[in-house]
Amino acid sequence: MSLSVIRYEHAGRPRWGALFGNRIADLTAEFTTTGELLQGGLPGLRALSPENATVPLDAVRLLSPITTNQQFVCQGVNYASHARESGLDPDRIPFNILFSKASSCLCGARDDMVRPAHVRLLDYEVELGLVLARDIGGPVEVKPNALHEVLAGVTIVNDVSARDVQLPQGQFYKGKSYRTFGPVGPVLLLLDAAEWRRWPELRLRLSVNGQERQNALAGEMLHPPHRTLTELSGLQDLRAGDLIATGTPAGCAVRAPGKLAMFAMRHFLSEGTKWRLFIKKGMSNPRYLRPGNEMRATIRTDDGALDLGEQVNRIAAA
C-alpha cells in the first residue's frame, strides 16, 4: 500500500515522517540523505500510523524529499505532444534524450522559485519523478512488471527552464540548473508492486495563476521507465535515492515558430540574429513566468487512489 513520505523542517531541524491527511507522523530516527532513508528507514516509516500523526502540516516548512547529494537525471522530449509543440516529429526521435540538472537546484514544494535577473524567458515543465530504491552498479535489464525491484516511489518534479539560456547556448544543464529551478515534492510516494503497474494512469497537471497549462497521462511517454532504467544502468552508476525526471507533456510556454519561419531562420539568418529574434518574440509571450506568478502542479490517478500531493510555487525576482 502506498505511503506518503515527507521531509520537512520543524524547530529548525530537518525531519522525515509519513503524511496522513494534514498531519505528520514523525520518524524519530534521523537519516541525512534520501538514500540512507530508503536503505535503512523503511521499516520505521511503515510502522507509523495516523495515530502517530501529531505535527500539523501547516506548522512546518516542506523540504525536497530528494536531498542534494543525490543525482538528478532527466529525460528530454519524452512525450509526443511536447515534441510536436517544439517543432519536432516524434517518429523521428529514435533516441532517449538524457541530461542532468545540478542537485543544488532542488527546492521544496512551497518554496519561492527565483528568476535570475538576466533570465527573461522562464518556463515550467511538470514531470513524474522516479526515485531509486537501491544502488545499481552495472547493466541490468528492467522488466515492465519489475519496477518495484529497482524503484522506491514517485514524486512531482517541475523542470524549470531558462529558455533564453538553454536554447541559444545549446546548454540544457546550464539553462535548467539555477538554484530553485527544481521544485520536488511535497511527498515521495512509496509504491508496492501492484501500484507500480498503475504508473501510466498518473495524470500530470500544471496551472499558472489558476489557468491550466498542462494535462496529460504519464502513459503517453515515448520511453517508459523500464527502458530508461535499463539504458541508464548500462551508462552510469545509480544510487538509492537518485531522481529521474521523465519528461513533460505539451503546454509549455516555449513554442516552435511555423514552418515558413523555421525555413527562413535556417537558410537566411545568422545564428546570432535568429536567437535575438527568438528572445524578442518570446518577451511578448504572456505564458512565460514572471515575478508574482503562482504555479500549481499535481500528479494523481483519476480515481485518487495514488496522489502525489500538490506543489505551489511563486515566482520571485532575484
What is the gist of this entry?
By secondary structure, the protein is α+β, with helices and mostly antiparallel strands.
**Ranges with pLDDT <50 over ≥5 residues?**
none
How many domains would you count in the coordinates? Answer: 2
How far apart the termini lie comes to 42 Å
Number of helices: 9
Give helix % range: 10-25%
How would you portray this structure in words?
It is a single chain. This protein has 318 residues and is of the alpha+beta class. It has two domains: 3-63; 72-317, Fumarylacetoacetase-like, C-terminal domain (Fumarylacetoacetate hydrolase, domain 2, Alpha-Beta Complex). The protein is built from nine helices and 20 strands. It has helices spanning 34-40, 42-47, 80-85, 163-169, 172-176, 193-196, 225-233, 259-268, 271-282; strands at 3-10, 13-20, 23-26, 53-56, 61-63, 72-76, 97-100, 106-107, 113-115, 122-123, 126-132, 151-158, 161-162, 182-183, 187-190, 202-208, 211-217, 243-245, 294-301, 307-317. The strands form four sheets. Strands 1, 2, 3, 4, 5, 6, 7, 11, 12, 15 and 18 form an eleven-stranded mixed β-sheet that branches.
Record keyword descriptors for this entry:
alpha+beta, Fumarylacetoacetate hydrolase, domain 2, 2 domains, eleven-stranded mixed β-sheet, five-stranded mixed β-sheet
